[in-house]
Amino acid sequence: MTSRTEQTLTYTILGLFSLLALAPIVGIVFTALQNPDNVNAFGSFDGIHLGNFKDAWEQGNFGSYLKSSAIVTVTVVVVAGTLSILSGYAFGLMRFRGSGVLFYVFLLGLMVPMEAMIVPLYYDLRDLSLTDTYWALILPQIATSVAFGTFWMRAFFRSVPRSLVEAARIDGATSWFTLWRVLLPLAKPAVLTMTVLLFMWTWNEFLLALVMVTDEGLRTAPLGLSFFQGRNTSNLTLLAAGSVIVATPVVVVYMFLQRHFIRGMLSGAVKG
Amino acid sequence: MAEVRFIDVDKRYGGVDAVRGVSLDIADGEFMVFVGPSGSGKTTALRMLAGLESISGGQITIGDRVVNDVAPRERDIAMVFQDYALYPQMTVFDNLAFGLRRRKVPKDEIARRVARAAEALDLGRYLRRKPGQLSGGQAQRVALGRALVRDPQVFLMDEPLSNLDAKLRTQTRGEIKRLQQEVGRTTVYVTHDQVEAMTMGDRIAVMNDGVLEQVGTPEELYERPANRFVAGFIGSPAMAFFDADVVAADGGARLRCGAVDVVLPGVGGLPAEVTVGVRPECARPWEEGDGRLVGPVSGVVEYVEALGRETFVGVDAGGARVVVHCEGRAALQPGDAIEFGIAPAGLRFFACDSGLALPTAVEAAR
Questions:
Q1: A185: which chain B residues are within 8 Å (Cβ-Cβ)?
Q2: What is the pLDDT confidence band of residue A23, given thresholds at 50, 70 and 90?
Q3: In this complex, do A166 and B146 lie within 8 Å of one another by their Cβ atoms?
Q4: pTM of the full structure
Q5: β-pair partners for B338
Q6: What is the nearest CA distance from B102 to chain A, expressed in angstroms?
Q7: What domain range is B320 assigned to?
Q8: Do residue A167 and residue B79 have CB atoms under 8 angstroms apart?
Q9: How much is the ipTM here?
C-alpha cells in the first residue's frame, strides 16, 4: 500500500520530469507557430501562424527530403523486420549447431557504433558503386537493424511457452506454419515495438546520409534539416517549423502504435 | 494396432543420463501411467515417444513402425500438455479443429468431429470463446478435446491435472478414465501423483533416476513392490521403513529394532539384517487378544493426522519410525505414549544393501 504522502511525492516527481521532457517540445512548436515578422524569442507564444510550415516546406525542399526518408525508412523497416522475425525465431526456438556463436556474431552489429564503421563502409560501398544511391543508406541500416531485431525477437520467442510450439508440431504444423499462424499473432506487441524503434532510428539516422550521399535528391530529412539550418541561422521560426516537419512522422507512427509499444516494452517484465 | 514398445531406450543430455535402458511393452488400448518423482525421466520418456526429444539409444515403436526418426506430426499421436498449450489467439472451435485442418480433413467432417468432442466434454457453450476466457477446468477439457478429435493411435498426457484444484482434479481423473475406455486408444499418462497413477492406470511404470524400477498393475505394485523405492513411492501415507536384526526364534523369526521386538511365527529364511517395510494399515493400536497382531510395541507419538474417518499417527518406537492406523478419531497428542501391534502378513522385507524385495512374511513362512 502506498501512503498519501508517497503518492503525492510520486506524482510531483513524475510531473517535474514530464515538464522537463515536454518543455523543449512545446517550446519548438510554439516557436514554429510564431509571427515571422516579429522579433523571435524561443518558446514564446503569439498566436498560430501555420504559414510558417508552408514557407519552410517550400524553402527547405522538405518534400524531396521526406520522400527520400520515407523510401529508406519503409524499406529498412520492412526488410529488417521480416529478417529479424525469421532469425529471432531460429535463434529462439530452433536447436542447431553453432547457434550460440552465430548469435553473438549478430550482436556485433549492436555493439559496434556507426561512427566506427562509417569510413570502411564508405570505401566498400564506393567500390561497389553504391555511394550516392539509396542502397548506400538502405543496406547498412538493414544490417544494423537486423542485429537489434534479432536480439529483440529472439527474446520474445524464448518467452513463448515451448509447449505451444510442440503442440503445433504434434498437430501437424510445419515450422513455417507455426511461425506465421501460431506465434506471429502473439508477437504483435513485440513486432510493433520493434517497428517503432527501427522506424525512429532509421528516420533519424544522420551520419550515414551525410557521408554516403551528395546528391540533393537523395538527402534524407535529418540531413536536409541540417542544410536548411545552415541556410537560415537567423530565422528561428522557419527553423522550428522545419524541425517540426521532420519530427512529425516519427511522432505520428509512435502515436498510432503506442499502446502496443508500451505492452511490448513491458512484456517479460510483468507476468501476463 | 497401436502397441507401443520401448526397447532398451536411452536419453543422454551431454554427460547426464536422463533415461537408461528402458524396455517396456504397452498393449493396444492400454492405459499406462508413468509415475515417479521429479527428475525420474518419466516426462523425457513420454517426450521421446512424442518425437519432441531425440533418442540417444534403443528403439521406440508405435504399431509395427520404428519411430526413432519420424517427425511428431507423422507419428499419429495426440498430446495433452501440463499447461494445456492452447493457441490463445484462436477460439475453442479453432483450437479443436487445428490438427484436423492441418491434415486436410474436409470441413463438414471437421465440424462433425468438433461437435462430437464438444458434446463429450460439455464444451458446446464455449466454442466461440478464446482460451483466456475459460476457467482452468474448461481449458483442460479443451486440451483433452483437441487430442480427442484427432482420433490418433496413441494419446499422450503429460501431467494434465497438475494445474487443477483438488476437487476438480478428482472429477477430471474419472472423466479421463471414462473417455479412454470409450475410445479404447492406447494412452500413456505421466504423473508424479501416485494416487492418480493408482486410480487411473491399467498398469503403472514406476521410474526413478532414469531407470524403470517396476511395471505392473496397481495391485501388484502395492502388494508386491520389487524394491524399497517402489514400496515407498506407492501408497499414501507412505510405507515406513526401519532396519532390523533377525534372529531365529521358537518356530519363527525374531525382529529387533529399537523398541520393536516381535516374533513372527513361521517365518524363516531371512538374512541376519533386513529393512522392514510397514504399511500404515499393518500397524494398529494394541488390543489384547487380537490374534492378527504381534507385539505390543511401545512408542511415542510424533504427529497426528486426523482425517475424520481415520487417523494416522506417526510413532517413534525407540528409533524405528512407524505410521499407526487408527479407526475414527484418536485421542492422542504428540508426546503421548502408545502401544501398537504389527500384522505380520502385511510386512515387507528388503535387502539392506540393494533394497531389493525379499520374500514377505507370509511367503517366507511357507
A1: 89
A2: very high
A3: no
A4: 0.81
A5: B299
A6: 6
A7: 240-365
A8: yes
A9: 0.83
